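Anyone able to model this chain together with zinc ion?
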Amino acid sequence: MRQIAAALEIPLDLKWQQAAALQDARDFLMGSPLILNDDRFFSSDSTQRDIARRLYAEVRSLPIISPHGHTDPQWFADNKPFSNPSALLIIPDHYVYRMLYSQGVTLESLGIARLDGGKVEQDPRKIWRLFAQHWFLFRGTPTQMWFSHVFHEVFKIRERLTTESADRIYDQIAELLTQPGYLPRALFDGFNIEVMSTTESPLDSLQHHQKLRASDWKGRIVTTYRPDPVVDPEFPAFSQNVLRLGELTGENTEKWQGYLRALFNRRKFFASLGATATDHGHSSAITCDLSPADSETLLQKGLTGTITRDEAQQFRGQMLTEMAKMSIEDGLVMQIHPGSFRNHNPAVFSGFGLDKGADIPARTDYVHNLKPLLDQFGNDRRLSIILFTLDESTYSRELAPLAGHYPVLKLGPAWWFYDSPEGMRFFRERTTETAGFYNTVGFNDDTRAFPSIPARHDVARRVDCAFLARLVAEHRLDEDEAQEVAIDLAYRLAKKAYKL
Ligand SMILES: [Zn+2]
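re: yes, here you go
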């Protein structure tokens, strides 16, 4: 049966309705078709669903604004074909391997490079088969929703991933990746991305961004200034990083004033290549207001490796305040991404390094911790700070009241573990009544998995439309206003908040 179905060619001259019917029949015969229902994430209540469909129709084709993410600018600078399905879809995606790791699959078998150069799986097809064998683990997770979208919409796959279909799907993706339409820039254009941000350290030369600027391609990719490696004394190789910062800028970064000038100098360089924002991934939202002399002492301790945990916390806190001062001068929007206990698993960290799915959310306080910064700059309209959280309990108790009052504060979207239908819904439910929609900033995909960008934005658009549809159905908002809000959430707010 399957061979017959697979051999069933769909003539190109059919009307689309006939072609679609034939396609459905073929999928049915294939056994386990991959279906993307057009009402996904909408309510099953027909009143709400009808409103959500109308709202979504207004936003589904809007260009994508991707103001925060972690794709590799080199992909677009060089525009070489992606090497294989596993390197594209599995290896950069720590959502994937954290789940597999939790079920006993080793990172080596997934081809994740070891820091000691030890042996790891090199055959991308074997990695793909292992992934397919464990695909059922993702049932009900956003990863399954994103992958289904990527398979269906980007790679035109019409059957579910199983151990049996793994090779066929691998071959189809591998074949498509050799075609011009699947080069990084062509995909970017095809995804209808208006602008996308990557994230770089102040130590980065930004050579790929420079190459992009010099090219004749019209795609807009900008960098974001992420100074964690040079402002966090607990970051690996902090003191070497600070010395390197000195070399790059010609400043004496072993002294507090020279260190600050060097950081400001790199911000200017980033802004010259399109950066409109900074990003800060601190473990807490602590901010400080220390004297220059105390800051100097902490810097010296950081550089000599004699800083205590508490002092490191204070130093990071002072650096958030310093970054806010610099933002008032140069206009870069600040993003604070606190509350991740990074590298929770020491064995994974020592074997494989950062960003390997071992980051765990921790309880986060904003009301007390942000006060030193807000006391100084909370009312300064030249400054804009976008707050994120991994602590959902703070949405209605701390974040919405703060953002619903201080002019400098806005709320970033549901982030990371909450970048999911339930997480987004909960975010709107807990923040809208106090902060409204206009103290939020639209959606961030925050991803390393480039092909999933349209999928992620589509989920956000659908969930927001479903939320708005409920307000309309309950007569809490008129539909024409909901329509305007839907467009703001999908497109206009991100552009405005990030000055893109
Ligand atoms: Zn990020």
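The mean pLDDT is 95.
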